[in-house]
Amino acid sequence: MSQTHQVSKMHEKIYDLLNGRIWAGHNIIRFDCVRIKEAFAEIGKAAPEPSGIIDSLGLLSDKFGKRAGNMKVPCKSYVIFQKD
């Protein structure tokens, strides 16, 4: 099943889940938000809009600079990513 077909079939649920909510993620502004708009445009539907966005790329860039794009660096620093 293609991504377009999946979004078309579930667009109302996805829209209701995302619209008017705060969205959070790493690099969400330049990646996820763009992909969501593209997917809804492909099926001719209005994309959901967030009430706010928390993008950890921006937050982590202040501390880690360009390395913030590589999640292994900040995660290791905060023991979020741990191998046994």
UniProtKB/TrEMBL annotation:
<dbReference type="InterPro" id="IPR036397">
    <property type="entry name" value="RNaseH_sf"/>
</dbReference>
<protein>
    <recommendedName>
        <fullName>Exonuclease domain-containing protein</fullName>
    </recommendedName>
</protein>
<dbReference type="InterPro" id="IPR013520">
    <property type="entry name" value="Ribonucl_H"/>
</dbReference>
<dbReference type="Pfam" id="PF00929">
    <property type="entry name" value="RNase_T"/>
</dbReference>
<dbReference type="InterPro" id="IPR012337">
    <property type="entry name" value="RNaseH-like_sf"/>
</dbReference>
<feature type="domain" description="Exonuclease">
    <location>
        <begin position="8"/>
        <end position="71"/>
    </location>
</feature>
<dbReference type="GO" id="GO:0003676">
    <property type="term" value="F:nucleic acid binding"/>
</dbReference>
<dbReference type="GO" id="GO:0008408">
    <property type="term" value="F:3'-5' exonuclease activity"/>
</dbReference>
